[in-house]
Amino acid sequence: MSNPSERIRHAPNPGAWPTRAQAGKSRLFSPLVHGNLRLAQRSWIPAMVPWRASDDGFVNRDVIDWYARFARGRPGALVVEATGIRDIPSGPLLRIGHDRYIPGLKKLVCAVREASGGETRLLIQLIDFLTIRRRPAPEKYFARHLQLTGRHRRALGAETWNESRIRSHLAALEDAALEQVLDARELESLRMGLRERVTDTHLPGIRELPRRLPGLFAQAARRARESGFDGVELHYAHAYTMASFLSALNTRADGYGGARENRVRLPLEVFDAVRSEVGGDYLLGCRFLSEDCIAGGSTLSDARYFAVCFARAGMDFLSLSRGGKFEDARQPKIGQAAYPYTGPSGYECMPQVISDRRGPFGRNVEPVAEIRNALRAAGFAIPVVVSGGIHGFHQAEQILALGQADIIGMARQALADPDWFLKVRLGFGGEIRVCTYTNYCEGLDQKHKQVTCQLWDRLNLEEAGLRRAKEGRRRLTAPAWVPPDAG
Ligand SMILES: Cc1cc2nc3c(=O)[nH]c(=O)nc-3n(C[C@H](O)[C@H](O)[C@H](O)COP(=O)(O)O)c2cc1C
Ligand code: SF4
To answer: For domain 10-133+211-324+351-486, which CATH number applies: 2.60.40.1120, 3.20.20.70, 3.30.565.10, 3.40.50.300?
Structure first.
């Protein structure tokens, strides 16, 4: 969690709730149809990784319970967490990199259909990410990881020393002396943990990304369709591979970096490959950043340009997030990996109540409105999803009325109360558990612990058949809500 420059405490304020009749006439609860996107209402739960999958990336009972619980609130759309497209070990993160994942994903789709009575459109977010290692202990880094070269020997005046003497010498050096010997990347690997970049084209795997990724995304999308998902969201946001191609920090010299026309090339090639694989009648869109929010990163002007490119290519929706980068992440403890939501850009992604003057609520609305204006000016009616601190009905309604976005995304508010949508629609807004935006959930994500919400994870722990988090003290899903007149 990042500390903003100012430390002003804001309070969530959802305002008044509508009656059932008012909700029934609202924009939020009106249907939206565009291309392959058919929503019963204009609400959307963006992807959230809950750290529930099995260690080899399969859907299990806890994954099913988590999504079925969201589906019971009947949002317009629900996006399944960032799901890895490669067939490589990645801990308890959901995977779709092989056909063996399809049976589990099918069960997930069925559970969501049943829980939402078929009302909620279910998408899955497809992600590729590069290697990031834990911050090493310095002695380990110098003993094993640092690749010694003539440059180090010369800087130390140690041309005649054997390797082990150099390594022990380096391990004993103070920070200031190390800065004279190691280059910027080596210092970063020592202080933050090694992190691959899309610009590391000396590495064959990185050089070949433009050749490999379109096929990997296309096959993953085919599996998503075969599993029964209504659509796919390509993850082009935050700290991951595709966002790094879009970023202005991408200086690749092979036609996939530098000018923004080149930076958008691979994201468009991935989309084309996916579209060819799944067909023109399948729901496809992407999530990308309205702004990178880091020094030298992509700006709103870039995002407006990318949005028009994606619309022209034939995407069915665009979902906008902001920030969430590794470049400004806080230094992790030794043995832990950097987390891209700990710096100022991370704050922009998941803003919390201790904030600057602008506050955490709706920080992405203005940039998204500008992106939407650029799309409309270019003649594209593609729906745009906004998220970031949205929790009130009137706030959502105003965004839609002003034409700032077409669909309202709520991640943490839906985690705090998955029944938000149903409660508001039925006129029981007063019963909503309003998110406090203190980011307890984000703290769990950072520690790779099963994500829950502090507003409900200690409630009714004696409930029969309740499934608890690994350490045994938290329930894994929000307690059930029964509408009073149905109960
Ligand atoms: C626990 C947690 C996990 C998240 N995982 C993802 C993810 O897998 N993919 C993604 O695009 N965003 C992810 N996000 C970001 C949210 O989708 C959303 O953009 C962010 O929380 C801001 O929206 P909000 O204010 O409505 O929560 C995650 C957020 C949280 C709190
Ligand atoms: S833990 Fe719950 S209340 Fe706190 S920020 Fe997360 S969703 Fe909101």
So the answer is: 3.20.20.70
